[in-house]
Amino acid sequence: MNRNLRFQYHFEPQKGWMNDPNGLIYFRGQYHAFFQHNPYAPRWGKMHWGHAVSSDLIHWQELPIALYPDQAYENAGGCYSGSAVEKDGRLYLFYTSVSRRWGQTQSVAYSDDGIHFTKYAANPVIPENPLGYSDFRDPKVTCIDGKYYMVVGTGDKCTGKVLLFASADLLQWEYIGVLFEGAEYAECMECPDFFKLGSKYVLMFSKIHEKERAVHFVTGDFVNGKLVNYTISRPEWGPDFYAPQTLLAGERRIMIGWMYHWGKRAPLGCKFAGALSIPRELTLSGNAVQNYPVQEARPLLKKESPYVQAEGNRLILINRRKQKTIWQLPFIETVDILEDTKSVEVFVNGGAASFSYWLK
């Protein structure tokens, strides 16, 4: 297979490495997807924020890099993952700044045109983890019932936690407390997202250092700064889906994930690595989160693929080396497949379960 083969329907950078989607937002008539990016090689390095825009969530145009790691408070790892929010016509990017002296802190940049960004002079806006742990990253800012909240992932190497902050102006942040925690879920809850879906509140986080790279959804009630009366679901089970983020577009809650993984290496001579998943709309079935391709992508779905087999309640994915991965499901009623040049994304029972699979 051509080592520089390109996707048809999935965004990937022209060159260099990409991982987590960042700053997903609909701003001034376009969908914006920022992403973790090393523009100099197809492997992880000091993080920049790449940038792409789309009018239909399927075809993307790559724009110039939005954030360079050019400040003293970014001189170690660079500009790690974060989010975007619009206030009074201005676009704000929140990100984790990583330095040798201060470690992981939270910073902000802003733009009036959505392309050229200025870093806030008083960065970092959250200079330390209130719990003192070194892992303190991936700020996701959202507006719920007229108030701005930020969730940040952390953990003490044993118990993962998501911290909650609040602000009136996006620049001064007050620590509220631990929104959710659990030793059984992660030692650090990466890339958290917090949003309202129907009448429920949903916390989404990615589980670091787990072999299958799990993404969990915690659905419950938001009371006094904590999630209570919750249930936990996991609709995505594939090996090539991690660190998703959501945006609100009209009435739709749309999720996009990183379709690659840390153990994967670009083929020798390939100049780029990593891609974004097909955008998916999130819905609730009871308290369980389901994910299914957005309306714009549904004409691409089909029922059969040489890489996908459904036998009874077993789903079998087959890569180009004829290697099989088998999942046992409670039942299979429907299977919808989005096949691209290098991947398949399989949606079972209308999105109750999904499987993202790189074919290389």
Automatic annotation (TrEMBL):
Q: Which domain of life is it from?
A: Bacteria
Q: What class of enzyme is it?
A: hydrolase
Q: Which InterPro entries match?
A: GH32_Enzymes, Glyco_hydro_32, Glyco_hydro_32_AS, Glyco_hydro_32_N, Glyco_hydro_beta-prop_sf
A single Pfam family it belongs to is Glyco_hydro_32N
Instruction: Read off the SUPFAM superfamilies from this record.
Output: Arabinanase/levansucrase/invertase
Q: Mind listing the GO biological process terms from this record?
A: carbohydrate metabolic process
Indicate the segments forming the Glycosyl hydrolase family 32 N-terminal domain, all copies. Answer: 10-287
**Entry EC number(s):** 3.2.1.26
Q: Which family does it belong to?
A: Belongs to the glycosyl hydrolase 32 family.
Task: Quote the protein name from its UniProt record.
Answer: beta-fructofuranosidase
